Amino acid sequence: MTDLLFLGIDGGGTKCRARLRDAQGNLLGEGTGGPSNIRLDPDLVWSSILTACRAALAQAGLHERDLGRIHAGMGAAGAGQTSAVDRLLARSHPFASFAIDTDAHTAWLGAFNGGDGAILIVGTGSCGYGGVSGRCHYVGGWGYEISDDGSGAVIGRELLRRCVWVHDGRAPGTPLSDAVLAEFGNDLEVLVDWVGKARPSDYGRYAPLVLEYAGRRDPLGMAIVTEAAAGLGSIATRLLDLGAPALCMFGGLAEPLRPWLPPPVQRTITSPMADALDGAILLARTALSGRQS
Amino acid sequence: MTDLLFLGIDGGGTKCRARLRDAQGNLLGEGTGGPSNIRLDPDLVWSSILTACRAALAQAGLHERDLGRIHAGMGAAGAGQTSAVDRLLARSHPFASFAIDTDAHTAWLGAFNGGDGAILIVGTGSCGYGGVSGRCHYVGGWGYEISDDGSGAVIGRELLRRCVWVHDGRAPGTPLSDAVLAEFGNDLEVLVDWVGKARPSDYGRYAPLVLEYAGRRDPLGMAIVTEAAAGLGSIATRLLDLGAPALCMFGGLAEPLRPWLPPPVQRTITSPMADALDGAILLARTALSGRQS
Hints:
Two copies of one chain form a homodimer.
Chain A: E1 5-11, E2 16-22, E3 27-33, H1 42-59, E4 70-76, H2 82-89, E5 97-102, H3 103-112, E6 117-122, E7 126-132, E8 135-139, H4 152-168, H5 175-183, H6 188-197, H7 200-204, H8 207-215, H9 219-241, E9 247-250, H10 254-257, H11 263-266, H12 276-292
Parallel strand pairs in A: 1-4, 4-5, 6-9
Antiparallel strand pairs in A: 1-2, 2-3, 6-7, 7-8
């Protein structure tokens, strides 16, 4: 009963996932909870974490009293923001220890088991992250306004920007621009109203359409995807230049964008050794051994 | 006392300007009032218009009772938005007639006295507008999110975007990027916090800095200004291709950006015949003669 337990937590905006392993690495159970983006109310985040944790404990046939044996590690979007982490850590928790880092860090820990390597996450946003010789590096990932090159949000915004050119007569129309402009009734006032309310995820919903048309050699789609791939290639190249020997790609747009990347980048892509939940478990183990040494 | 009076109004976000002329075109007076962006409360906008109008009347030695002799024309940012115009026109006014159109339209009316020609406005935003053979065309000007190529807001945002590349090691630093990154303590978290609160005018405040460094051959500054000029060149080219024989430039960035424009565009640039206030007077006269014919 006094054996160590390790809990890996993935804290996302819509749900929280948790995985429980024993000290030997055996899988004991998994569970999910509610929203756990750490920019949210800390009480809500802890409630989501504990819901996911208790579900994993129950699956393992363990109990509330076993909470105190758990060393937890959490990867969370927004954990680069010190103030949000401080707010979360100001609450008490029932674990033996609790370590937190960014979701990029735990994805990287899982992918390379803590060894040298880089990851490239491409979904609504984009972010590069790598660890080399014990030093970690972020490349990009500062939000779609001024960063997130090659992300779904940037692809979608670029699509609408170029559709304005087509509507103005500044660029030739293509089947892709025809389809998008028709969606807005060929009325830029309607389009601009939509833009005024659009969030990054709204722009990002156009990325699959752009990729689909690009795959059919639509000139506008190909131009946008080529530009996105160049942006991602620049992030990857920087990480490889920093000394990362290989690259893992994650996120909903990783697979469709991969064939568009520059061949020297494509050649470095490998499959991850493990996922971000196991990366979070490694975070917990590393934090514990750090405290013990 | 029954002679016609014509009032030209320029409705801006910070102030309202008005100019009064008689039927022969003689200048009688000018005045200013408060904020009159027509997206604001209609009562506030009318109050600003009438303040500016009464100041012009006073300068002309005229009186409250002369309001009924005035045929007014107003150019206003946001007048392309039908709902805002409808809100404004739902209020009663003391004028004999009142016509309203966009600030681009009155700037064009003034610049070419209603004849064929195009204008390019470059300040915080950018917009192209032209009238050819009685047909008017907007090119660009749909806001900095997906349009406003070459504007101050887009130049400033592009500066910060490329400064992130420099900070990441994805692009070489230059004196311009050094200066900007130092302003944010070389801390991208500080920069991203700033971006989260930034309005287009905040980005636009970086445009003079970019132009200054570009003038000193800073590679980053030159790259951004070259891209901005290409965007403006594409707007101008479209207007010229639609048949506009000449181009007038307006806005705080028109003069510094002009030498960067493609030579075939530069060659078409002329001085405006008159300003937007006289364009608004022409709007009022045209509306009146349209009603009388």
